[in-house]
Amino acid sequence: MTVEDVKIIELxxxxxxxxNLSFAENFKQIPFEIKRTYWIYDVPGGEGRGGHAYRENExxxxxxxxxxxxxxxxxxxxxxxxLNRSYYGLYVPKGLWREMENFSTNAFALEFGSSPYSGxxxxxxxxxxxxxxxxxxx
Length: 138
Ligand code: TYD
Description:
Layout: E1 7-10, E2 13-14, E3 21-22, E4 36-40, E5 49-54, E6 59-65, E7 68-73, E8 78-83, E9 88-92, E10 97-101, E11 108-113, E12 122-123, H1 126-134
Antiparallel strand pairs: 1-9, 2-3, 4-11, 5-10, 5-12, 6-9, 6-11, 7-8, 7-10
The chain binds thymidine-5'-diphosphate (TYD).
């Protein structure tokens, strides 16, 4: 996988005087079956987190409110995606280093994963990530 495999996906939206509605379904807008959902909130403005790669887990990230950047890195190239609308999702395949940066105050990140939480799926050391990537192991 490379940063070229990371995609912004525009979600359906129903605009209405009563408020707007968007949605996402397995294997439609989200290119995998959701096995896990988690969310990140109350991040102090300007903070960042999430410096790691997954061996198997794929992700779909939505900024439900506020804004933040997702920086993806395949060991050769880096790309930054700014999420700031609740009708865009970012698909991040497995095997990429990814960080979340520049959270606005009151940002709310909703994340869907393709696998249940597993600590052993994480690669938290950047040098180890580069070694695995260069050896074609991830
Ligand atoms: P982590 O993914 O390490 O957050 P970040 O990389 O943004 O710092 O998650 C923080 C803690 O939350 C970690 O100790 C494990 C726990 N956690 C779960 O138990 N289940 C989950 O689905 C996630 C994402 C995290």
